Amino acid sequence: MLLPATRSSRWFCVAIELSSHDAFLAALSRARRIDLSAYCLGPPILRALEEAADGGARVTVRLESDLAGDRSGARAAANARAVRDLAAHGAHAMLAEDDARIHAKAAIVDGVAWLDDRNFPASGPNLIVRDTDAGDVAAVRQKLAGETPSGGRLGLTKTAALAIEVATIAGAPPGEIDVESESFNGGTISHELTVRAAAGDHVRLLVDAREARGRREARALANLAKRGVEIRLCGGGVDKMAVCGDRAWIGSANATFPDPRTALQSDWGLATLSAGAVGALRERFEASWSRAHPLTLAWEVA
Fold first, then answer.
1. How far is the C-alpha of 31 from the C-alpha of 16, rounded, in Å?
2. Considering the domain boundaries, does residue 209 fall inside one?
3. Based on the domain organization, do 172 and 90 belong to the same domain?
């Protein structure tokens, strides 16, 4: 799925609004049907799902079984325990059984799609999108059911989500290009930022400092810095977004090169021309940018 470099609104999600953790919890509390998938879930959302099931709601939950970096197995065990606890409350809960890792954090609650760039956490930076577009909702429902989506403007794999982000950056008017990603390495986003910097645009990139410590990540960042991209590192978690002039991209997909394992992993990404959403995202970026520290030569890798 690739957006053309055009402003035509039919290529952008329009029936969306930036929402909040509290609003999502409120929706769960009054829901009659909930379908949700996530990499993992924290206690507040688990409790809300259990309470919804106790109240008679039809609740279906799917969590990841193979979590990256989980050498001790503690996080996988927590997901397995969550599945057992949810089932005890009458929910239909399961662990992923296919090879495509669940990285999308998505739910359909009484016919409305809720999308989070993290795992619906109770604290820290996270972007929750409420989407009422019928095509988008149908596509998310299909994805949650393990089917191939046939409509909507959303990218629901990592490859599709990043293609939308690339097209959002490529199609933006000249000027400011601001990108934020939890982790970052060489790939399509890196290439597009290089292109925009070479064209004379002011390109800024914000990355989580913890995720920037790897050799491949450090090399990719150093190469971008050499090509004129202004880079800062931020602690405490960051959003996943691109704000470019009159448009913005939001998603759960990190701006990393998808390997065969992650290319088709469940992720989401969307572009919008909503002035309210673009303005709110720009404010979030500026706030995070002001707290971050510049990339230094110590990070450069030959």
1. 19
2. yes
3. no
Give Cβ neighbours of residue 65 (< 8 Å, ≥ 6 apart). 76, 79, 80, 95, 96, 97
Q: Based on the domain organization, do 53 and 176 belong to the same domain?
A: no
122 and 42 co-located in one domain: yes
Same domain, 137 and 172: no
Q: Please, are residues 63 and 37 in contact by the beta-carbon 8 Å criterion?
A: yes
Q: Quote the longest CA-to-CA distance of the chain.
A: 59
Are 175 and 255 found together in one domain?
A: yes
Model confidence, pTM: 0.90
3, part of any domain: no
Rounded to an integer, what distance in angstroms lies between the CA atom of residue 98 and that of residue 18? 31
Give domain status of residue 1, yes or no: no
pLDDT tens string, the chain, 302 residues long: the values are 444 444 455 679 878 999 999 999 999 999 999 999 998 898 999 999 999 999 999 999 999 887 777 778 888 899 999 999 999 999 999 998 765 667 779 999 999 999 998 888 877 667 899 999 999 999 999 999 888 887 779 999 999 999 999 999 999 999 999 999 999 988 899 999 999 999 999 999 999 998 888 888 888 999 999 999 999 999 877 899 999 999 999 999 999 876 666 667 889 999 999 999 999 999 999 999 999 999 885 444 44
Counting the structural domains of the chain, the total is: 2
Asked whether residue 36 falls in the same domain as residue 98, the answer is: yes
DSSP state at residue 11:
G
